[in-house]
Amino acid sequence: MHGPVTAAWLLVALCGVTGTYCLLRMRSGVEEQRRAAGGEALMGFGMAAMAVPAAVFTPPRWAWPVYAAVFGATALHALWAARGGPRHLHHLVGSAAMVYMAVAMSVAPPAAHHAHGGTGVPLLTGVLLLYFTGYVLLTGARLVPAAAPAGGTAPGGWGDHPEVARACRLSMGIGMLAMLLAM
Predict the structure, then answer these.
(1) pLDDT digit string, tens, across residues 123-136
(2) Can you tell me the distance from the alpha carbon of 156 to that of 133, in angstroms, rounded to the nearest whole number?
């Protein structure tokens, strides 16, 4: 994406670490945790790859349609999963945002990847910025009152800490905001 190189590397690190933790969460004994962790790992690694500074690596033109296809399939999966409850709608919005950014990068000429040619923020970018800002604020507020579990013992495995999973979702929401702002 665009923006300062230091911020891009921080975003790569944040999303890469989050994706790695989500892979570890896939070993959870809780089935719902495992299912959510796979999609979140894909999102984390996809965001990390997309955030690599263009000065270091510029993906070939064919990479952006591949990103769009992968995250389009992820969006369809989230849409299908949303039949069972609204908790999958955030994954749908995140995947759609990734498709949007991949399409925007594929149609923009290489020189446009470094500067905006228009005035203002495109409507869809603004809507996504509002959504992810609200998501980050709400998720952050949910982390603040995290109470210790009854009995003083925490759940066992890597994937069985819901507060860490929420923190990962929060970090990916912040990363999505940074990527949308850099468009």
Answers:
(1) 999 999 999 999 99
(2) 32
- CA-CA-CA-CA torsion sign (19, 154, 134, 131): positive
pTM: 0.82
In angstroms, the CA 41 to CA 28 distance is 14
**Helix spans in 108-161 (H):** 123-143
Query: What are the sequence ranges of the domains in the chain?
Result: 5-145+158-182
- For 9, residues 6+ apart whose C-beta sits below 8 A from its C-beta are 53
Helix (H, G, I), strand (E, B) or coil at 149: coil
- Cβ contacts of 44 within 8 Å, gap of 6 or more: 15, 16, 18, 19, 20, 22, 168, 172
What does the pLDDT read at residue 114?
45
What single-letter amino acid sits at 109? P
Q: Which residues of 27-48 are buried (b: 16+ CB within 10 A; e: fewer)?
A: ebeeeebeebbebbbbbbbbbb
